[in-house]
Structure formats: C-alpha cells, structure tokens
C-alpha cells in the first residue's frame, strides 16, 4: 500500500512545535530562530517533505470568490454581518457564496469542503454551536485557504477573529438591571463550550459580584432559543416568584421568556425586568419593547472581510493574526423599568 505523504502537522507533532512555526521555518521567515529553521528544514529534507502540489496549484489562481459559513441566515445578527461583508467584498471585486449550517456539525464540514471544491479565495466562518471537533478547520489551513472567524470563533485554530465584547455586553446589560433595582436576576444562558456563551455568563456573574449580589446557580438556565424557553417554561415559572430580573443571552430568548411569564400572570416590567442581547428588529416591536445591547453586526462583517482580503491579497503575512473586538452598546427600552406598569 502506498504510504501517505508527510504533512506540516506531522512534522510539528514529531518535533514538538506548532504547525505555524513549521510553516514559517520552511518559508525562512525572519521571526523564526536560525536554530529552529535548521531543525525543521533538515528534518523536512530527511523525511522527503513536499508541499501539497494540488493545494499550491489551486491557490495560485484567484477566483475572486469568498465563502461565508453561518449557523442561521434568518438571525438578524448574521444577516447584518452578511450585509457588512458583501458591501466590502463587492467594493473590492469579490463575489460571495453563503452557506447555512443550521447548527449542524456535519453540514458545516460538507459546506466547507464544497467551498474548497469551488476554489474560493478565502472563507469567513461563524461556528455551529454543535461543533466540538475541528479537523475540518485545520484542513483549510493545511490546504492554504485563508480563514477568518467571526462571532463564534474556534479557539483551537490560529486565525484572525472578529467578535463583539460579549463579556462587556453582558456586564452592561446586567449592571443596567441592577441599576433599576433588580437584586435576584436569572440568566438564560448559551452552551458553555461556545466562547460567546461562556463570556456572556461571566459578564453576568461579574456584574453581580461588583454589586455584592449572590450568583445563584439555580438562576442560570441553559436556554438560548425560543423553543428551549417553552421547553423549560415550568422551570422558569417555578423560580419566577423568587426573581426580579432576567438577562437572556439573546433577544429571541428574552422575548420568549416575557411571553411565558405574561401567560402566567406576571407583568413585565412591573414584576420582573428583562434585558436581552442583539437588538434585532423584534426587540422594538416586542411587548413591552425590549431593553438589549446592540451587537454591531454590520461593523463586524466589514472588519472580517477586510482582514480576509489582507490574507488573500498578501498584504499581511500568512501567520500574522489579529483579533478585532467591538464593544456592544445598551439600548434601553420599557422592558427593564422594574416596578412600572405598561399601558
């Protein structure tokens, strides 16, 4: 049986260094020490390492097409990001292929491979919440495809990243509720393996700690969709007599929570104040209108596309990565005015 050709990842594993260090050493990058360059280059020659010829040939000709992989196109935040991406892309002569994973890992893998097969010049990705294995992202790097992550990033992959400051946004929303008189606040949380879920929960608990309020684990419920709110309605209603505020990880969850509470005789915000995260169109037409934090999706999309173009057009080094962070802003509406009747 024919043996598989050795890859950069194989060399990195054997020598105990990172793949990016191997890649730069093979390119004689000035940031790599002469000792490491000699080690890598000597070993590569010894094992007869050859760059992936197919990948090199594919990367040598531009298609002026980029791929976008998102969890849900119907989500206001992601549609705002796409608008920002496309405005920059079309202005620079690029077309976009948009793929929707529907939060499905297998579909994410298939979508990325389809984009590679269509020879896109680079890919912008917001990871599915059900992705726990990252070989498909590593394969993009191995094949020389530039990748920029936005919103839901993959911490295990070295890349450019564009994100909202989820910690600070959650902290702002929670401090606002506390400032309105809330002392026992429930958090409807996203999965904690996602950085956005982890950071928003930590921002929530940090605000409580700042004001010397107790963070009760019973008041943190994994619940980040409308469907999940309705599925856990009994849990929410059972705790409702104890709480005076809710901070939800996104707007759709916050609005669903208000509906569940209202159907069970609670007045929002007289009995329980509510704040969300995102500021989509539904926030302003909810009853009562929802206090939330604006996520700057359009700006995130523009920044992500500019970073990707830098790698495609070679104006930045392959292994030079940066993280751009946008701070959300509070949008105060009626839902957080604790103790007030809505007429």
Explained architecture:
This is LacI family DNA-binding transcriptional regulator. Keywords: DNA-binding, Transcription, Transcription regulation. Residues 6-60 form the HTH lacI-type domain. GO terms for molecular function: DNA binding. Pfam families: LacI (PF00356), Peripla_BP_3 (PF13377). The protein has 343 residues and is of the alpha/beta class. The protein folds into 3 domains: 8-51, no CATH class; 64-164 and 297-327, Rossmann fold, CATH 3.40.50.2300; 166-295 and 330-336, Response regulator (Rossmann fold, 3-Layer(aba) Sandwich). The chain contains 14 helices and 12 strands. The strands form 3 sheets. It has a 6-stranded parallel sheet with strand order 2-1-3-4-5-11, with helices on both faces. Helix 1 (8-15) crosses helix 2, helix 2 (19-26) crosses helix 3 and helix 8 (166-179) packs parallel to helix 9 (195-210). The longest helix is centred in the N-terminal third of the chain and has 16 residues, at 76-91. The relative contact order is 0.13.
């Amino acid at each position: 049986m024919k043996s598989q050709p050795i890859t950069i990842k194989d060399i990195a594993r054997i020598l105990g260094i990172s793949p990016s260090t191997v890649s730069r050493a093979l390119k004689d990058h000035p940031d790599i020490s002469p000792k490491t360059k000699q080690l890598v280059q000597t070993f590569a020659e010894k094992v007869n390492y050859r760059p992936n010829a197919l990948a090199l040939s594919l990367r040598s000709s531009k298609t002026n097409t980029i791929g976008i992989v998102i969890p849900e196109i119907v989500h206001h935040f992601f549609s705002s990001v796409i608008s920002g991406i496309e405005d920059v892309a079309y202005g620079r002569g690029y077309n976009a292929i948009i793929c929707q994973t529907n939060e499905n890992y297998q579909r994410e893998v298939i979508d990325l491979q389809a984009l590679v097969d269509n020879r896109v010049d680079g890919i912008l990705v917001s990871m599915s919440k059900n992705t726990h294995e990252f070989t498909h992202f590593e394969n993009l790097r191995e094949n020389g495809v530039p990748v920029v992550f936005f919103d839901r990033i993959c911490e295990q992959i070295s890349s450019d990243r564009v994100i909202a400051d989820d910690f600070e946004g959650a902290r702002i929303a929670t401090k606002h509720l506390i400032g309105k008189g809330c002392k026992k606040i429930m958090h409807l949380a996203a999965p904690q393996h996602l950085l956005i879920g982890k950071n928003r929960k930590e921002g929530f608990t940090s605000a409580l700690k700042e004001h010397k309020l107790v963070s009760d684990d019973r008041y943190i419920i994994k619940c980040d969709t409308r469907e999940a709110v309705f599925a856990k309605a009994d849990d929410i209603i059972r705790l409702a007599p104890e709480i005076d505020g809710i901070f939800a990880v996104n707007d759709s969850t916050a609005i669903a929570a208000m509906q569940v509470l209202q159907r069970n005789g609670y007045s929002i915000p007289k009995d329980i104040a509510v704040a969300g995260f995102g500021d989509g169109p539904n926030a302003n037409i909810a009853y009562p209108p929802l206090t939330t934090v604006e996520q700057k999706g359009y700006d995130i999309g523009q920044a992500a596309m500019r970073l990707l173009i830098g790698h495609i057009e070679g104006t930045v080094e392959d292994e030079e990565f940066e993280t751009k962070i946008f701070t959300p802003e509070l949008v105060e509406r009626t839902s957080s005015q604790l103790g007030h009747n809505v007429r």
